Amino acid sequence: PTILYQDQFLSRDQGKVDMEDRGYQFGDGIYEAIRVYGGRLFLLDLHMKRLERSARELRLQLPYSIDHLTDNLRTLIAKNQIDDGLVYFQITRGAAPRQHLFPEETESVLTGSAISLSREDALRPDGIKASLIDDIRWLRCDIKTLNLLGNVLAKQKAHEQGSEEAILHRGDTVTEGSSCNVFIVKEGRLITHPADHFILNGITRLFVLDLAERLDIPVQERLFSTEELLSADEVFITSTGAEVKPVVQIGDQLIAGGRPGVIAGRLMDAFDKEVT
Ligand code: PDD
């Protein structure tokens, strides 16, 4: 595979990271994962807006303009001959002798890759099992940083319980998934956590909120409890890779008898129409 390193296209084994890169030592960096459908970057502008916001919040300098970065991502897709796939890239604060304070002068370091991912492999229309896991992350989950240890530990715990995803809760409140956003349906109404510091404002989340409006499905962005989650008419998760994925079991509890719901189905159909 061809990877992106700064402004260069290299073969995967030519990519080198400095051992004192702050991304490596501190998780001091940001990333995006963008879906590719038919060779084209999906919802690109929203991802780039979020990237710029993440950079601002961490006072991290983007090494290239968004236009230039976009050109490079398109070249990366072409060089790897990606039709349906996923582009991942990250930007760290660069390399400097290890100390916590921002170094006075470093050059941000960008690395990126592109992989094929068929929708058939990524989607799970019959639904998945999830586990409820304590959300132990920091209080700025709205920033898409490389610090994902809380997410990693949660997903691993869920996996060891035979689940595909961890649904996180702070006290009684459901926040999001370890790598996705969470929606429930109650009496025909979509409910999802508001976009504040406790969740990442997913691009797929935003897209699904937009689809819901177009389909006249009422939406409430509000806190909801673990109790509401477990007694919901439907539960589904959203993310760049998974699109809309029904959750039909949480721990031992079946959701709606273990079958994907009607509203999730309508959203999956609408999503499908937008991307094929
Ligand atoms: N994860 N919440 C968290 C904590 C996430 O890591 C993600 C995405 C989302 C959904 O965001 P989006 O719809 O923009 O993909 C929500 C990515 C895909 C990842 O880390 O691989």
Describe the protein's architecture and organization.
Homodimer. It catalyses: D-alanine + 2-oxoglutarate = D-glutamate + pyruvate. Keywords: Aminotransferase, Pyridoxal phosphate, Transferase. The structure is a single chain. This protein has 276 residues and is of the alpha+beta class. It folds into two domains: 2-117, D-amino Acid Aminotransferase, Chain A, domain 1, CATH 3.30.470; 123-275, D-amino Acid Aminotransferase, Chain A, domain 2. The protein contains eight helices and 15 strands. It has helices at residues 22-26, 44-58, 66-79, 119-122, 149-160, 203-214, 226-230, 262-275; strands spanning 2-5, 8-11, 29-37, 40-41, 85-92, 109-116, 128-134, 165-170, 173-177, 181-186, 189-192, 219-221, 234-239, 243-250, 253-254. The strands form two sheets. Strands 7, 8, 9, 10, 11, 12, 13, 14 and 15 form a nine-stranded mixed sheet that branches. Strand 7 (128-134), helix 5 and strand 8 (165-170) form a beta-alpha-beta unit. The longest helix is centred in the N-terminal third of the chain and has 15 residues, at 44-58. The mean pLDDT is 97. N-(5'-phosphopyridoxyl)-D-alanine binds at residues 33, 151, 176, 179-181, 200, 202-205, 238-241.
